[in-house]
Amino acid sequence: MHLPYRSDIDGLRAFAVSVVLIFHAFPSLIPGGFVGVDVFFVISGFLISGIIFKELETSSFSFSNFYARRVKRIFPALITMLTASYTFGWFFLFNEDFRRLGSHIFRASLFLSNFILWREAGYFDNAAETKPLLHLWSLGIEEQFYIVWPVILWMFWRFKSIRLPLIALLSLSSLFWNIYQSQLDLTHDFYSPLTRFWELSAGAWLAFHVSRQPQTHRHANLISAFALLLLLVAAFLIDSKKAFPGGWALMPVLGAVLLIYAGPTAWCNKVFFSNRVVVWVGAISYPLYLWHWPALAFARIVEGTTPSVGIRLGAVVLSVALAWVTFVCIEKPIRLGWKSVWRTPLLVLTMVAIGYVGLACKNAGGYPLRPIMQARVEANIGDIGHETFHAYYAKHFFACGDARVHAKSEKWGDLVRCFQTKRDAPIDLVMIGDSHAEHLLLGIAHALPHLNIAVYPRSELPFTNSNEYTEIFESLVNDRHIKYVLLTSMWAVAPLSIDERTSFQANLASTLTLLTNAGKHVILTTDTPKFGFDPQRCKYNHPLSGLSNCSESSEAYRQIQSSYVPLFEDAHKLNSHVSLIYFDDLFCTDALCSMAINGRILLRDNNHVNVLGSQVIGQELAKQILLIEPKFNH
Fold first, then answer.
1. Domain of residue 333, residue span
2. How would you label 138-165 residue by residue, b for 16+ Cβ within 10 Å and e otherwise?
3. Which of 131, 147, 552, 581, by CA, is between 20 and 30 Å from 4?
4. What is the mean pLDDT of the chain?
5. Considering the entire predicted model, what is its pTM?
6. pLDDT value at position 628?
7. Same domain, yes or no, for 329 and 441?
8. Are residues 283 and 157 in the same domain?
9. Cα distances (Å, whole numbers) of residue 551 to 69, 301, 582, 595
10. Within a domain: 535
11. Residue 566 in domain
12. Is residue 487 a contact partner of residue 511, using CB atoms and an 8 Å limit?
């Protein structure tokens, strides 16, 4: 069963995909172009729910038919794009990027992209620019909605009096949860299906209303004009700095609902959204959405930086061409022409096969023996990966002497990650924290070779509220010979929300109080940047472009710093036994952060320094430590 065709809805699709595409290619032109996805959600909820309502009303609804239609609509273009992305990656991606692509292909085949991206990072961070399948988060949310939505409607359809209240209750619950989460965790709010379902159910509510009450056109022109205004204001006013979706998402969602409600005869709908060119773009909007982001992301990876305007324009043109070919040669023939009973099973089996190929790529580490790995040209010297770094620790340092601390330490293979630089001498300085404390030991030991320095790494922030550090703090408090403790960690997990900030500050204060009351001088340090790409892109020139990529915008790093550095500065001002050392200038200017200096790469992955990087930081830390305690100079 199909709803009557409305060309203006295809026109609305064209608006949605166009603002998304322009935002991704030229973000300064339409800073809120990502709201196009919210418009897509409303359109989908309206059309698909409208079909479900009609079939339930006529007792012709079938779960098998419904999901078969979804497979025929979604799978052909998606399979084509995933296959092409994997093929490009095989020939042109270094192994770490290819491994990650394989992982994302596997999740995409299960329509779980939003969950892996939720775990990895945010939609607007630097790393997002080089994830070719980033955009599939929205497809994941949409299909997750359609797993539960038909079941809910089927279960409650017999109760006529609660149909509309049920839709309203579910929509409002999701909306309020979205607004609440926007104040706590924006990444959760952006990627969670629970905070997005209201956008699809808003379209469903409209479909239910329209099916019961024929559209009136008394104020249709005014409604459609106001709706268009809402959509344009949302696209140009909202930007990545807003707490989105949150309450801001009401603007594009309401705009889309009102524009559809106004009907095809409303002036804006008839003149703008039913224009032949606009409708054509709307018809290819799904494959265009699928193709545009991989084209831009692969260009970004190969170029090693933001591609030129010409290359981005080329990627847009290529996306349109691929979308048209996909629509004409793949989507339409499979969906409308091929009538075999094997159509749906074969599409499902093909998707399963692609998911398996992606999983195999992930498990194989991106196939490091592919031809591109043999054709790499070194651009910067320095070790990457973890083997060289940990081998250095195993060769040059001793196991830490505190038996309790040593017993609970993590391992790298057979290597217990708890070290001190001299076997039997009294310990002068203890560093505690996670692997970001561990990776500083090499450099400080190199710069201050006469001291005995220990590092006790754990996998959490070095605060007293963590059970991981219980025996460490007990040891430090009870050992009167240890006078200096350095606290550092991967502060990228530092607080961003108000509640997290309050908790972080309280835990920091209790930790500093415990240590300073025990007679320790505490040294706090800033942290290394976390880059959005693997250091292979910095160490080697890419064969296609002949370029390497070592730097990115410092905006994300500065934002993270702003969440914890002021708290450290306050602690330093309030307590003379607390010092603060900055070393971010070694990596970052006001505009950029770089993982290489003068042809030498300083990181072994996207956030841990290598042997050389540790030595560079160690020189700076040693200078500052000697200012704190001049006796360490002897």
1. 7-373
2. bbbbbbbbbeebbeebeeebeeeeebee
3. 147
4. 90
5. 0.81
6. 87
7. no
8. yes
9. 46, 12, 20, 6
10. no
11. yes
12. yes
